[in-house]
Fold this sequence. Notes:
This protein is an alpha+beta fold. It contains 8 helices and 4 strands, in the order ββαβααβααααα.
Amino acid sequence: MNTRVSVMSEKTHGSTKDFKDLDAELPQKKYGARPELTTKQKLELSKAFGIFDPRGSGLIEQRGFMLAMRALGFEPKFSQVDELIAKVTGRAVNETLDFKDFYNLLNLVMTGDDSKDDVKKAFKMFSSPETGVISLENLEAVSHELGEDISTEKLQEMISFADKNGDGVIDLQEFIAMMERPMLE
């Protein structure tokens, strides 16, 4: 299932600004809920696109996309940009990008993209190297290290939520399954 997001596109006519809603379709994130861009970030993207589309054609060159990324604080290499464009748009490099492509590409860059490797790294941060599972003791240690005062009961609820085989701990497969669940609002 895809998520539809309205984005404000800025067009300047004289000294007044006219906003037009654009729908950008974002691919659903495979692991966990997709982080959302803030309104400020969405406006920054709109302004950045407008800078590299001074004629208002609705299209920018790949070079403009790379410059926009740099203006937003990213330092990509040409090969990384080529790979990202091919991955997200499914098109060859050196083609023009419309605002929807631009938004989807930068949304992916700005919100991150969880991969299975990232989920495994997160699991290793919580789990015990000796046992290879996340126990109540592991969660208590992490809670203490972060200076969070979470009751043992709440931590046990976290374990019980993810523990599908009933062994009292969370193994890697249970952790991955938990991360794939949609987040409740």
